[in-house]
Write a structure and sequence with these properties.
Blueprint (H helix, E strand, L loop, with lengths): L14 E3 L3 E2 L2 H11 L4 H4 L1 H5 L10 H11 L8 E12 L8 E13 L4 E12 L4 E12 L6 E2 L5 E6 L22 E9 L9 E2 L11 E3 L17
Parallel strand pairs: 7-10
Antiparallel strand pairs: 1-4, 2-4, 3-6, 4-5, 5-6, 8-9, 9-11
Length: about 240
């Protein structure tokens, strides 16, 4: 399993815990400047000291952003897009000086198309006492693992001939051989050559052959050649 995970590496119930980070006053002031949210509960020490919390608080949305950011390496996945954030709850305040960490769990896996799978994650932010302070669901698309390289294989050469006569190899295409005196001939099928090469080395899947439901029939036609035959090669 690689250090950066594909959708195929995930399973419901997997859980990761991120590294820890301490909230500083600079963090809160920078977030206020980025968002324009200078509410006194976050930036005014005098006002905050007289509130029920007695000190400035981390912005609630800053906590959500940290939960998302801290979990980008726990786990590290090949995310293509974030679809939604659902049922997010602000359970307890986070103060300047608190140390927090994120816990991420896979809740649901679903098809997301040909190149990605849809993942529902539960993300939670905890403080240093192990108290869950925020939590909710993230839904994202995660890239599918690439398919193993497959080397294409040329179809084998086939010769068709009337029953009782030997098959003749042909390097161009299958031939249906009939003589002028034939009224209706039955033809048998023989595989006369099948060569498989893989360069560079890789996964090679030989062709699969369809069963013939009955004898191949042909109308009389001297030297008739056909470009159609009932053999196929599948990836």
């Amino acid at each position: 399993m690689s250090s950066v995970l594909y959708f195929d590496d995930l399973s419901v119930g997997q859980k990761w815990t991120s590294s820890r980070r301490t909230v500083t006053e600079s963090d809160v002031i920078i977030f206020a400047g980025m968002t324009g949210d200078f509410d006194r509960a976050h930036v005014d020490h005098d006002y905050a000291s007289k509130s029920r919390f007695k000190q400035p608080l981390m912005h609630g949305l800053m906590g959500l952003a940290w939960a998302a950011g801290l979990s980008t390496t726990a786990p590290a996945v090949r995310t293509l897009a974030l679809v939604s954030v659902d049922q997010w709850k602000f359970l307890h305040p986070v103060h300047i000086g608190d140390t927090v960490y994120a816990v991420t769990e896979v809740i649901e896996l679903a098809s997301g198309g040909r190149s990605a799978g849809k993942v529902t994650w539960k993300k939670s932010l905890f403080n240093m006492q192990g108290e869950e302070v925020q939590s909710g669901l993230f839904v994202s698309y995660v890239e599918l693992a690439p398919r193993a390289a497959r080397t294409k294989v040329a179809a084998p050469h086939v010769s068709l001939a009337p029953q009782g006569e030997p098959a003749v190899a042909n390097s161009r295409a299958p031939k249906l051989l009939a003589d002028e005196s034939s009224v209706l001939g039955q033809a048998s099928v023989t595989i006369v050559q099948a060569t498989f090469r893989a360069s560079p080395p890789g996964l090679v899947e030989p062709p699969q052959f369809m069963d013939f439901s009955g004898p191949v029939e042909a109308k009389p036609a001297p030297g008739l050649e056909t470009e159609s035959w009932t053999i196929r090669s599948e990836d």
